[in-house]
Design a protein that fits this description.
The structure is a single chain. The protein is elongated, with a radius of gyration of 21 Å. 35% of the residues lie in helices and 19% in strands. The strands form three sheets. The protein has an eight-stranded parallel beta barrel, surrounded by five helices. Helix 7 links the parallel strand 11 and strand 12 (232-236). The chain has two domains: 2-62, Alpha-Beta Plaits (2-Layer Sandwich), CATH 3.30.70; 82-334, TIM Barrel, CATH 3.20.20. The protein contains eleven helices and 14 strands. Bound molecules: phosphoenolpyruvate and manganese (II) ion. Residues 102, 272, 298, 308-309 line the site of manganese (II) ion.
């Protein structure tokens, strides 16, 4: 049960509602976000919602049978839109495209990538400055200095930044230089990180865990939401299966399932999802047809020289072609 409280609720009204919730043998968890205050009722007893629905101080009340609550579409039927400002939105009648290198490598690469994005009408740039690498000897990113150089060029060009945050201590120094914090697949269930991201006023994109279920991804989002941050995006990036022919198995099933279960925007990452450059395009197009609100993919001027993930990275010609096809696919789908 989700009880949305009126913004001008009196303390004694709130107390009376909590008492009522307890009388149904439900726990009442209070959640305050940037947008409102909610009581999340957790329990299993059946009761008549009318016994509580007209109490003073209640804005709205919903029975949500899912065990995640605030991210459930049973509560919020209308899909959520993320507004990054300057006309950049995710999840409303447009296809969100996020493109850029796996790793931020230097100023020259930043500048040429931004030019490529601008030439192709892309307003969000991806790139890692903190890189989770399987080997400790691999390139681990330029860190905060790289982010600052990137931000200088991106903000001058009107490009939004999405980049991975790996640990709680990085949030504060990164805050002024990012538009979307990415939670990587290795951190989907880093609950301390999710709690901390619940406290920031910045959009968060959570990737599905390497071996994570769809419900586990939704619970991770519930952590951030219930921590206070409603600005959330989910990302299907492929899961580990027994299949060895591709890096991961991009779970296209997850896209319509997530779109049904949650009101949050759903982005697909075909680069990590399949891990093979020549197959990124068909998987991006398939993700759009499956209902994705956007695509995040890797591109680099010279992919074989990329510091990381070159094998799945498109060059700028391939990236430009992909953009054209993705927009055509999205328009075709919208015309049905
Ligand atoms: C990335 O986006 O470069 C990345 C490391 O992604 P993931 O967490 O999905 O592996
Ligand atoms: Mn990568």
């Amino acid at each position: 049960m989700i009880i949305q409280l009126k913004s001008n609720i009196e303390p004694d009204q709130k107390e009376a509602i909590i008492k009522k919730v307890h009388s149904f043998k439900y726990e009442a968890n209070e959640v305050s976000t940037q947008k409102g205050t909610y009581l999340i009722g957790i329990g299993t007893n059946e009761f008549d919602i009318r016994q509580i629905g007209n109490m003073p101080g209640i804005e709205d009340i919903h029975i949500v049978s899912d065990s995640y609550k605030l991210v459930s579409r049973k509560w919020k039927v209308k899909p959520t839109t993320i507004d990054l400002g300057d006309g950049v939105t995710i999840g409303r009648d447009s296809l969100a495209i996020m493109a850029g290198p796996c790793s931020i490598e230097g100023e020259e690469q930043i500048v040429e990538t931004i030019q490529h994005l601008k030439d192709n009408g892309i307003t969000m740039m991806r790139g890692g400055v903190y890189k989770p690498r399987s080997s400790p000897y691999a390139f681990r990113g330029m860190g905060i200095d790289g982010l600052k150089i990137w931000h200088k060029h991106a903000s001058a060009a009107g490009i939004k930044i999405i980049t991975e945050v790996m640990q709680v201590s990085q949030i504060e120094p990164m805050l002024d230089f990012v538009d979307i914090f990415q939670v990587g697949a290795r951190n989907t269930q880093n609950f301390n990180l999710l709690d901390a991201l619940g406290k920031v006023d910045k959009t968060v994109m959570i990737k599905r865990g390497i071996s994570g279920t769809i419900d586990e991804l939704l619970y991770s989002a519930e952590y951030v939401f219930s921590g206070g941050n409603e600005k959330l995006i989910l990302c299907e990036r492929g899961i580990r299966t027994y299949e060895k022919a591709s890096r991961n198995t991009l779970d296209l099933n997850a896209i319509p399932i997530l779109k049904e279960k949650t009101h949050l925007p759903v982005i697909a990452d075909p680069s990590h999802g399949i891990g093979i450059r020549r197959h990124v395009e068909p998987m991006a197009l398939a993700s759009i047809m499956a209902g994705a609100d956007g695509i995040i993919y890797e591109t680099h001027s010279i992919p074989y020289k990329a510091f990381s993930d070159g094998q799945q990275t498109l060059d700028f010609r391939e990236s430009a072609q992909l953009c054209k096809k993705m927009r055509a696919a999205y328009n075709l789908l919208s015309s049905f």
